[in-house]
Amino acid sequence: MKNFYPEQYIRDNNYQINHNYLKEQFSDCDEILLKIKEVINNSDYTLGKSVDEVESLIAKECQTKYAIGVGSGTDALMLSLKVLGVGPGDEVITSTYTFYATVGAIVTAGAKPIFCDCKEDYNIDVDKIESKISAKTKAIIPIHWTGKPCDMIRLKEISQKFTIPIVEDACHALQAEYFGQRCGSFGDLGCFSFHPLKNLNVWGDGGIIVTDNKSYSDQLKLIRNHGLIDRDTCLQFSYNSRLDTIQAVVAKHLIENKLLHITKTRIENAKLYDQFLTDIPEINVQKRLPHNKEVFHLYTFQAKQRNKLASYLQEKGIDAKIHYPIPMHMQPAAKRFNYKKGDFPVAEKLCASTISLPVHEYVKKEAIYYISNLIKEFFK
Ligand SMILES: Cc1ncc(COP(=O)(O)O)c(C=O)c1O
C-alpha cells in the first residue's frame, strides 16, 4: 500500500471549481515560515509555547475552560474515551452516518460501537438513542455533521437521565453554535480536527480536545505525553499524541488571521447555494434552523439521480463529491458487528442520495451561480 502523495490533490485540481483549496490558502506561507523559524531557533519542538497559545485560543473560541492539543481529531476522540475509562467490554453509541474516524476511535479504545440511525438533517436521531442504551453503554458520540449542530438539549437530557457522558465529535464544527453556544462545549469533552481539509487546517495532522473538567484536562495532558509529569517521572504508561509544535504555529496563524473570514465566507456561500437551489424540485435542500449557526465544512443536499448529477458536474469541471456512499454499519470493517442493509434506513437513503459541492472561501459567488445553473440545466 502506498503513502499519500501530492498527486491526490493535483488530480483534484484538474477541476475548475475544486473542493481542495490548499494552494490558494497557503500562498502567503512566508509569514508562517518566519514564525516556524522562531520555533527552530528556540529548539522549541515538543509542546512548548506555540501549543500553549493554540490551546488558550481554542478554549476561548469554544467558551471552555481547557483545551488540550493532540495529534489528530481521531486521537482527540480516542483519548477522550480513554479518560472516561472506556475500554474492552464497553459500548459507545454513535451515528452510522459519520466518517470512519469516529468508529475507529471507539474500536481503538477497545469498545464496541453501537450504531444509531440519523435524521434527515444527517445528525444522530436522538429519539432512537434510549433504545440502544445498555448496562455496557459508557459514552455517546454525536457528530455535528458538516458543521450543523446536533440537538444538544435532548442529548444532554439523555446523558443526565442515564449518567452517560457525551463526547462531541465536533471535527467539522469549529465556531458552529447551537442557541448561541459553541459546539464542542456541550459534552463532557469536545473534539476537533486540524486536518488539511477542515475549516481550521494545518500543514499535516493535528487535533484538540476542549472541556470544562479540570481532572479530564489534567489526565489528557498526561496521556498525550507518555504519562510524564517531568522527564524522569511517569505516572501512567500511555501514549504519544502531542499536537506538533510546528502545526501549532500554523493553527495559531490561521486562528488569528483567517478563521473568522473562513467561517463567514463558507456561511455566505452556503446561503447563496440555498437561495439558488431551493426551487429545484428534484433537490432536497436542508432546512436551516434559526437557533443553529452552521459552519459548512461541506455543502450537502439530497438529489434525485445523484450519481448521474455528480458525473455531469464533474464533466463540467466541478468537483462534486460524495461524502459518503456507504454508512459505517455497511463497511467491511463492521462485518463482525452483524448489522445488515435496512437496519438504518435514513442513513442508507442519505448515503445513496447525498452530494457535496465546493463551499470554501475561495469559491467565488459567480461560481456558485454557475454551478447552480448547471444543476438546473441537468434537471431540465
Ligand atoms: C467527523 C469526523 N470525525 C473525526 C475525524 C478525524 O479527524 P483527523 O483526520 O484529524 O484524525 C474526521 C476527519 O475527517 C471527521 O470527518
What's the structural blueprint in terms of helices and strands?
Layout: H1 7-12, H2 22-25, H3 29-41, H4 48-62, E1 66-70, H5 73-83, E2 91-95, H6 100-108, E3 112-116, E4 137-141, H7 152-162, E5 167-169, E6 177-178, E7 181-182, E8 189-193, E9 207-211, H8 214-223, E10 228-230, E11 233-234, H9 245-257, H10 259-277, E12 283-284, E13 292-293, E14 299-303, H11 306-315, H12 345-353, E15 354-357, H13 365-379
Parallel strand pairs: 2-3, 2-4, 5-8
Antiparallel strand pairs: 1-9, 6-7, 6-13, 8-9, 10-11, 12-14, 14-15
Helix pairs in contact: 3-9, 4-9, 5-6, 10-13
Bound molecules: pyridoxal-5'-phosphate (PLP).
Task: Explain what you see.
The chain has 380 residues and is α+β, with helices and mostly antiparallel strands. The chain has two domains: 24-257, Type I PLP-dependent aspartate aminotransferase-like (Major domain) (Aspartate Aminotransferase, domain 2), CATH 3.40.640.10; 258-379, Aspartate Aminotransferase, domain 1 (Alpha-Beta Complex). Helix content is 38%, strand content 14%. It contains 13 helices and 15 strands. The strands form five sheets. A four-stranded mixed β-sheet has the order 1-9-8-5. The protein has a three-stranded parallel β-sheet with strand order 3-2-4, covered by helices on one side. Helix 4 packs across helix 9 (245-257). The N and C termini lie far apart (44 Å). It binds pyridoxal-5'-phosphate.
